[in-house]
Fold this protein.
Amino acid sequence: MLLKDKTVIITGASRGIGRAAAFECAKQGANIVIGHSGRPSGGQAAQSLIAEIKDIGRHAIDVGSDAANLDTGELLVREAVKAFGQVDVFVNNAGICPFHSFLDMPRETYLETVNTNLNGAYFAVQAAANQMKKQRQGGSIIAVSSISALVGGEFQTHYTPTKAGLLSLMQSCAVALGKYNIRCNAVLPGTIATDINKEDLADPEKLAYMSSRTCLGRLGEPEDLAGPIVFLASDMSRYVTGASLLVDGGLFVNLQ
Ligand code: NAP
């Protein structure tokens, strides 16, 4: 029960990494605000997660609102306070990666990616931090960045800057918010099998290659991120701020 009675907001919690993290936070005693896109499929997925969380004796609500909308963060915080009275942990996880080559990148694709992954996140982190400051009990903010914050990708020239931006945002916010005991950290997943890369990894050769590039010989599963996120959310990491944690099965260090 590392997060007993804490309120945790997780954006993009209807599927993939966010969903696994939300369920583990609930298992650790937290009540959860499940963010998603607001599309019907997101709402349905969120409802099934709410039922799973109820089954283990915790509470959850869902808030469907586009992460690219600069007001979404305030909405998430407002709904969290209405339902649970406070915000202790904010996990900025929602993200998209529409793979595309650089030389003919459509402006719309670039802008949608940057707005969803970074611009909305900036103001969502700001909204969560203001609420935590008001509560005077500190808090934990976690950005789900990526190994792509550290390395490039031919078809991710619009995506990798957003992940480097999130990492940098956590570092600067750690400096700005330390005086309120609000900790800010980033997790950097490697290749985790989710919907975001399903098409890219449908090619069996690419799948085998990416698995072989890791030290552990396998791709990650969404649940592999749950422990690191709970750790950074909880008081177990009370002296950790401005840090980044690679969760990549050893992909980054495996150069050869
Ligand atoms: P995923 O399975 O595709 O899940 C994406 C989540 O984000 C869903 O809950 C989705 O909600 C939500 N989302 C998408 N667009 C949104 C929008 N405009 N507004 C609000 N929510 C939106 O992806 P994932 O792999 O778990 O990715 C989660 C995060 O991890 C992303 O930030 C991604 O960049 C990062 N990451 C993933 C990997 C990887 O290999 N999988 C590696 C490094 C970093 P709906 O259900 O409503 O669409």
In short: The mean pLDDT is 98. The chain is about 45% helix and 15% strand. Strands lie at 7-10, 31-36, 60-64, 89-92, 139-144, 182-189, 244-247.
